[in-house]
C-alpha cells in the first residue's frame, strides 16, 4: 500500500547517524541523498535496500513531530535483537526489549526504541522461531 514515508527531524545530522547505525542490522542504509542545492531548501536522505529509498528523514518547513510509531520488518529474530542493540548504542532509549508480544500474535517478536526526536521505532519479525 505505501511506497515510502518520511518525516521532519530536529537535528538532521544526528538523526541520519542514528538511523544509519540502527537500521544497518536490518540491511538498510542511505540509498539516496537530497541536498539543499538539489531541492531548493530541503536536505534529507532515504533509507532502504539498494536502489529503493522507502524511509525518509530530513529538514522541513514544519515542526518535527513527536510520538510517531514506525515498525521496520526484520527477517529473523536475531535481526530484531541486533537492531535493538545497535539503536541503543547509537543513542536510542529502550522502549521494549526484544521479545515475543503474544498479545499481537503467537510469533510477533519485536523490539522498541525511542529515537532522538521522540519517535517509537520498532523492528519486528513475524516468522516462527526456527527449529534446530
UniProtKB/TrEMBL annotation:
The residue ranges of the VOC domain are: 1-126
One Pfam family recorded for the sequence: Glyoxalase
Please give the InterPro entries that the UniProt record associates with this protein.
Glyas_Bleomycin-R_OHBP_Dase, Glyas_Fos-R_dOase_dom, VOC_core
The protein depicted here goes by the name VOC family protein
Q: Which organism is it from?
A: Lysobacter hankyongensis
Amino acid at each position: 500500500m505505501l511506497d515510502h514515508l518520511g518525516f521532519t527531524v530536529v537535528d538532521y545530522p544526528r538523526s541520519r547517524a542514528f538511523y544509519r547505525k540502527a537500521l544497518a542490522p536490518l540491511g538498510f542504509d542511505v540509498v539516496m541523498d537530497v541536498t539543499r542545492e538539489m531541492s531548493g531548501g530541503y536536505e534529507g536522505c532515504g533509507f532502504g535496500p539498494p536502489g529503493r529509498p522507502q524511509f525518509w528523514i530530513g529538514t522541513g518547513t514544519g515542526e518535527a513531530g513527536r510520538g510517531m510509531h514506525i515498525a521496520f520488518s526484520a527477517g529473523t529474530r536475531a535481526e530484531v535483537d541486533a537492531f535493538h542493540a545497535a539503536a541503543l548504542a547509537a543513542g536510542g532509549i529502550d522502549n521494549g526489549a526484544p521479545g515475543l508480544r503474544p498479545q499481537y500474535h503467537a510469533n510477533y517478536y519485536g523490539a522498541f526504541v525511542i529515537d532522538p526526536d521522540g519517535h517509537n521505532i520498532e523492528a519486528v519479525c513475524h516468522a516462527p522461531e526456527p527449529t534446530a
